[in-house]
Structure formats: structure tokens, C-alpha cells
Input
Amino acid sequence: MDTPETVITICMGSSCFSRGNNVNAEIIERFLRENKLEARVEVRGCLCEGKCRGGPNLRINGTLVQDVRPGAVVDLLAHALLGG
Output
């Protein structure tokens, strides 16, 4: 199996989950499917990392992105994965 080019880790701790990552996870999966990126991107969940105050949080290739609101997810992914 090939190693994915990108790893997105979604915090599924109770604070991040209830503040938007429950919806963000669905948006990320849909974006990857619509752009045929499933083979290039691995999506993982994680438990709380203690960064709740800035949540909802996710990581893209280990880089923490905080305050990720559902309305901003598509733009964030387009920039990170499609270069635009």
C-alpha cells in the first residue's frame, strides 16, 4: 500500500467534536471524495490533545490548525491539497 501524501488528523475530543469537528469530519470526507483525493489523503481521528481553548482543531501533516469552523473547511482543504 502506498503511503498517503497528506495526513489530516481531526480532534474528536468532546469540546472540539461539539464545537464543529463532528460536521468538519463529514465535510472533509466529502471534499476528498468529490476531488478524488481518497488515495492521497489519510484521515485520522484523535482524542483530546489539550488545545481545547482554540478548537475545533485539526492537524494537516502535523501542523495544528485551530478554530476550524465548518464554513472554512473547504477553503482550507483547497489551499492545502489543491494549491488554491
Remarks:
- Strands lie at 6-11, 41-46, 58-60, 63-65.
- The mean pLDDT is 94.
- The helical segments are 14-34, 73-82.
- The longest strand covers residues 6-11.
